[in-house]
Design goal:
This protein is α+β, with helices and mostly antiparallel strands and 352 residues long. It has one domain: Ribosomal Protein S5, domain 2, CATH 3.30.230.10. It is 35% helix and 21% strand. Helix 1 packs parallel to helix 2 and helix 5 runs antiparallel to helix 6. The longest helix has 20 residues. The radius of gyration is 20 Å and the shape is globular. It binds ligand DP6.
Length: 352
């Protein structure tokens, strides 16, 4: 079994957030359920090639042209190599695997490259190893790379149920509605492209252990997930907008309440918050909703009717040098290339 398989996947943005891991093993089991939309691969995506060949002596991963260190105790690389190893053993393969992954957006900037990267990788390996795993199994495998990656296995509107099993078999994502259900837009304001100081993997453990507000978040987040799903099913934008903004604020409050405090939003992020509230009060209803992940970049969800205005509002709030992009809701990962042999011109990008 040798060849190169290339898959593309998009990141997702959570409207009800995952924050806090209930285990400190390698399973990425969340304390609460979450709800997200998968973004469109035309705007943001990770493209991942996997090359399988007996001549590859050691599994290796390149991200955006850089070999990821597997000898240092790099947590993420260790998790990825663990999933690669397990998928190879499911396919009875002893070949070496070379993973080459590229993002068209800055990694580590709060745009979840690990979500799209994890989803693209397990999708490509499933093809390369002819495993024929279903989406639920792929979601469980992607979750082990990065929690939020389990949601990027599906397009459209997605729920990740927390599950209760200690082994994580019941903690996976599922589609609530396809992208065509409701044409929402995510206006992304890139505030900073630099890496975050506290990784989400570290934050997921620090906050539940140290924040006194966290306990109340858990009940709220579970309720928010149910209400967000109802709002999505009923296409009730105002309801969804209010849940989205409140849930983001609540998560960031527990981050700040952690010890030592974890601060991801910066002054520019808060300018977007103010500008969105100002826009909503001008209309006398919620026509846009901000949400922030583990970084300062703004995601503002809106409908096509208000898209241009939201882009202007976000651009003005961020000021000079800001980058604003808009993404529709997109589909699940897809296979975009397949070569049966490694002896090919396509080896070139692998010789980094
Ligand atoms: C704030 O899935 O990036 O974006 O499992 O450690 O890779 P790891 O964490 P990750 O955490 C995402 C946190 C969040 C909220 C969300 O996407 O639900």
């Amino acid at each position: 079994m040798s060849g190169i398989y290339t898959a593309a996947a998009a990141p997702n943005i959570a409207l009800v957030k995952y924050w806090g891991r209930r285990d400190d093993s390698d399973l990425n089991l969340p304390y609460n359920s979450s709800v997200s939309v998968t973004l469109h691969q035309d705007t943001v995506k990770t493209v991942t090639s996997v090359a399988l060949d007996p001549r590859i002596k050691r599994d290796a991963i390149y991200v955006d042209g850089k070999l990821q260190d597997s000898t240092r105790s790099d947590e993420k690389v260790r998790l990825i190599l663990g999933v690669v190893r397990d998928m190879k053993s499911m396919g009875n393969s002893e070949d070496g695997v070379l993973v080459v992954s590229r993002n068209n957006f800055p990694a580590g900037s709060g745009l979840a490259s690990s979500a799209s990267g994890g989803a693209a990788l397990v999708f490509a390996l499933n093809e390369a190893l002819s495993l024929h795993l279903d989406d639920t199994s792929l979601s469980v495998l992607a979750r082990r790379i990065s929690g939020s990656a389990c949601r990027s296995i599906f397009g459209g509107f997605v729920r990740w149920k927390r599950g209760t099993s200690p082994g994580g078999e019941d903690s996976y994502a599922e589609q609530i509605a396809p992208p065509s259900h409701w044409k929402l837009i995510d206006v992304i304001g890139i505030v900073s492209a630099s890496r975050k100081k506290v990784s989400s993997s570290a934050g997921h453990l620090i906050t539940p252990r140290t924040s006194t507000l966290y306990r109340s978040r858990l009940e709220l987040a579970e309720r928010n997930a149910e209400s967000a799903i109802r709002a999505i099913e009923e296409k009730d934008f105002e309801r969804l907008a209010e849940i989205t903004m409140a849930d983001s604020n609540n998560m960031h409050a527990t981050m700040l309440d952690s010890w030592p405090p974890i601060k991801y939003m910066n002054e520019k992020s808060w300018r977007v918050v103010d500008a969105v509230h100002e826009m909503n009060s001008r209309y006398g209803k919620s026509v846009a909703a901000y949400t922030f992940d583990a970084g300062p970049n703004a995601h503002v969800i809106t409908t096509p009717k208000y898209e241009r205005e939201v882009e202007d509002v976000v651009g003005d709030a961020l000021g000079e040098g800001a980058r604003v992009l808009a993404s529709r809701i997109g589909n699940s990962p897809k296979l975009i290339g397949r070569k049966d042999s490694l002896i090919d011109d396509s080896l070139k990008p692998l010789q980094i």
